[in-house]
């Protein structure tokens, strides 16, 4: 079967290759679930792996199949599987257990291993192929009514994890009740963070470089949030105008903004960092002021990345709520569909950022 793969750490080595077709017995004991891949989303991680910045193949393999934002449909289940049935729509989790104590208790997203096991990213083949076999504990069922937007489940799970971490951490404050949030970045993660925070009843200021109106700013404003261009208003100015910010969600991919955010975060506030920055940028920051602000203001900074099963399930619930409260909003994020694995070069070319895309995704197979 077809698969989109590359040689990790070798820039621009992307190619369309072949993999053996999986069978249900690839997972022993009747516990396997054979899934037909329907859609796979692309993001900045795929672009960075394509550029040779990071990534590693599975042991014994000289290549890595890409793709971590999947949506599939169950084709067949093993004799011991009761949670899924043929025809069900499913999303597979990205990070899988390693060897740390956190991996052993189902919290592989908090692993302390030096090498993470991540489908389509590190040590595990991804979902840019036609079929895969998995076990039930790593699959999340997607209601049929959400199938058209189900490929957004994985990025939504990252947002769910980040926001839930903020609330869990601030249980230390007993009465923490955030009112105003700032989201930095209006790409897929930033828009989904804006959505989740609005579903939670917060006032939200979403900041990005581009001046409105354009699709992303319109999507922000249609949720009742405020869109601000950083070309017109700096982060410090926005904090004075619309803050203090109780919760900040950084999703720009531009690391200097993390340190600016630390300076404007409100007292008892939480900064959630979702950007994975693989570069080597160096800058000078007002370290004394940042340190003093965090110490005296009881501030917190926390990172979020690949999520656990519970966050995927929470993502499905939030997406269902969004379809009820903001019908059609999620589908507007799916701006650039590319049909067929054969068109992989077109899909990855769209990641250049010059097309004002929100979500590029490949339609591997049609819905049935």
Please explain how this structure is put together:
By secondary structure, the chain is an alpha/beta fold. It has 2 domains: 2-142 and 335-363, Quinone Oxidoreductase, Chain A, domain 1, CATH 3.90.180.10; 157-303, NAD(P)-binding Rossmann-like Domain (Rossmann fold, 3-Layer(aba) Sandwich). The protein is 27% helix and 25% strand. It is built from 10 helices and 19 strands. It has helices at 44-50, 101-104, 153-169, 188-199, 215-222, 235-242, 256-264, 287-297, 309-325, 344-349, and strands at residues 2-6, 15-18, 32-42, 64-65, 69-77, 89-92, 95-96, 117-119, 123-124, 131-135, 139-142, 180-184, 203-208, 226-229, 245-250, 265-273, 300-303, 336-339, 360-363. The strands form 4 sheets. Strands 3, 5, 6, 10, 11, 18 and 19 form a 7-stranded mixed beta sheet that branches. Strand 1 (2-6) and strand 2 form a beta hairpin. Helix 3 (153-169) packs across helix 4. The model has no long low-confidence stretch (mean pLDDT 94).
List the helices and strands and how they pair.
Layout: E1 2-6, E2 15-18, E3 32-42, H1 44-50, E4 64-65, E5 69-77, E6 89-92, E7 95-96, H2 101-104, E8 117-119, E9 123-124, E10 131-135, E11 139-142, H3 153-169, E12 180-184, H4 188-199, E13 203-208, H5 215-222, E14 226-229, H6 235-242, E15 245-250, H7 256-264, E16 265-273, H8 287-297, E17 300-303, H9 309-325, E18 336-339, H10 344-349, E19 360-363
Parallel strand pairs: 8-9, 12-13, 12-15, 13-14, 15-16, 16-17, 18-19
Antiparallel strand pairs: 1-2, 1-4, 3-5, 3-10, 3-19, 5-6, 6-11, 7-8
Helix pairs in contact: 3-4, 3-9
